[in-house]
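Hi D.,

Good news: the full-assembly prediction came through. Inputs first.
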Amino acid sequence: MKVNELSFLIGGEAGAGITRSGFLFAKACMRAGLNVFGTNDYQSLIRGGHNFYVVQVKVDEVYSQTDSVDLLLALNAETVTLHKDELVPNGGVIYDPDDISVESETLGREDLNFYPVPMKKIVWEELKEDPIMRNTVALGAAFALLHLDLGLLDEVLKDTFKLAVAESNMKAAKRGHDYVKDNFQDNFPYRLIETEAAGKHRIFLSGNEAVGLGALKAGCKFFAGYPMTPTTGLLHFMAENERKMEMLTVQPEGEIAAINMVVGAAFAGVRAMTATSGGGFCLMTEGLGMTGMTETSVVIMVGQRPGPSTGLPTYSSQGDLRFVIHASQGEFPRVVIAPGDVEECFYETMRVFNWAEKYQMPVILLTDKYLVESQTSIEPFDTNRVKVERGNLVTGRYQGLEEYMKHKLTETGISVRALPSTKGVIVRTNADEHDELGYTSEDPVMTTSMVEKKLRKLTYLAKELEERGTETTKLYGPEEAAATIVSWGGTKGPIREALKILNREDVSVNYLQIIYLHPFPSARVEKALSKSKKIIVVEHNRTSQLSGLIRERLLRDVDHTILKYDGRPFNPGYLAAKIREVL
Amino acid sequence: MVTLKDLTTPVKSNWCPGCGNFGILTAVKGALIELELEREQVVIVSGIGCHGKIVNYVDVNGFHGIHGRVLPIATGIKLANPELTVIGFAGDADQYDEGWDHFCHALRRNIDLTLIVHDNQILGLTTGQTTATSLQGFKTKSTPFGSVVPPLNPVAHALVSNGTFVARGFAGDPRHLQSLIVEAVRHKGLGYIDVFQPCVTFNYLNTYQWFRERLYKLEDQGHDYTDRQKALEKSFEWGNRIPIGIFYKEDRPTYLDALPHLRDKVLAKMPVDDIDITSIIESMK
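Then the structure:
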């Protein structure tokens, strides 16, 4: 009997409510005092195809899905055929016998527990409800198998839907639950039991929502975004909260308009942000260069998916690292930060607004589909950890002795920032190279000074990061190890789970996460890597862009790369095996 | 209140002598004085092309942006701080070629700003190529055998895009243009003016003389600018007689008017410290 550790997968056609059901299951488990991680896999279509949502439940912190499935909830035949080999011995399959036929012989699996539940019949004939509700019947059945209190699901339903809808769903869940109790032996070897942590204040949210919360907390009052997977969730989150938070969310005619609106809004003084994926970022590139030239404080969230071009629109990738670091013509400073989990999504988003305003430059929050669309249960955020810092901003009347100059040449490269409408000030900026007042200038001496001024800001930013001890990198595990895994962004979760596996086997390995990719924290990375005998870079791309960056910045090669570029996330068991192979 | 001296910058103009842009500059400065605006309350935004240099020549807040993007930049500024008077300047290639999509959408959005298009029917700063408003058969360096396509009709497009203030002016008549600009700025919504602006260096066809022979004022003909159908008819007049003046004007709520939660709020001036997100966090429990 396995208690309070479970890998649960619900699969079916698009449009069948798969993600919603996975979400309900996960949230109920969280309220039972367990830790949960949920991730979805879906195709770029609205109906048909194959969608699934995986929930990993544990007592301890959980950072990703695992390699296997303990309980499979199949709403179509494909779910069984596609996932049968992931099922563990003694694993369970809940399915509708009127819909699909599941036979252990044809499956080639004699070691599974089958639970045929006539979901459609129950919903349609008994309850006379929308067939989409068969998910809920199935969830009720799963709760019964796992001995999980159905009251938890009822509460989540009530918090998620309008009362009438919630009540219909509660009935459906109850029927599924009772059907299992009445018709099957109590032989499923998994149990989920409420822990002492039940009722403890925890939240279940996605990376997109964490970025949105961070932005709202940081005072982002202007968000412009054009829908594009995987950052559409952030657009929805901002739109949903715009009235409550007294801010403005705009969906303009495209990404070009989005970035230019954000530039205008930031120039006028509001904390402004846009979000997109690689293709949209291509369109934003000219605007990005303009933020560099005009020294405007803009925040851009990029959620990566496999490219080039449309690629795999609903899957994950880390193929855009070099692209976002180098995008645009000319040379100008920018910051590229890659959070690796939901908590970092929140805190780093709060920070990026500070960097953008203090240093008057674009800041890119580089994420990926797996990070921003997966959901994790966490302790609520410490909303006071990152303070709002606006830099040298003129408030009230301008008190300077000389005429205000938006692009004044200074030692740090940072000019005093004033906003249009400030008394005594004319704020002028220019996408052409310009002088300190913002007038167009093609003078060679002024051009040299301005190029240097802008880039100087990055040097001072790097200095500030070092002086403040900002966690531009994080080291997990022992300080010295036989091997160090190095990665950035959304691979963090599976790597941390793989570390758990390897540490149980007494394999000496630690993990360096690089959060700030630009400016590159060379000293911190060098220090961590100098103690390692073997460096293994893990990335979701084909060319190991991080290895190239390390080579460029530290003049050293890495020993091994473990790369995946099929759009799907790493599984921790697979990753642990790959790491063992190269040790 | 501003004076002509206040609005003058130390930057020497590099427009060609006789350029239609001078007429627009005169009209704009005159309008700013007539409107009795404070310099600090005005932001001008320009794109790329000869017109774009206007940010160097008017001493108010300014954003000289990139080609085609005047409207989204101006939109962002206005939405962030509605207390500002925002005036966008674009060229014909700038707005009607590179920035065409923004044109229709800004008009239907009805943001409270002004758009003045310096329409010289040619790309001047790149030394003479065809644009969206170049006449069919017009020979330029990029169309040495004559442009083979008809021009688009920006005024008609503005009308069918639900524009709420659609006008056309002439750089050769700065006084008339000034009155249009004053009206456009006062209009609550997007005040759009297409301005015939002769390029004396590269446009050999559409000269001051060419326009003077053809232009007449809608107001002199008793045109009813509240009638969109009539306005559309007028917008198709081309050839021997070409109308200038206000084609159409209507009061329609602006984009911000439709957002009750931001009434009387200035996003750029709202506090960003200690924002309370507790209720959203609570909903994620």
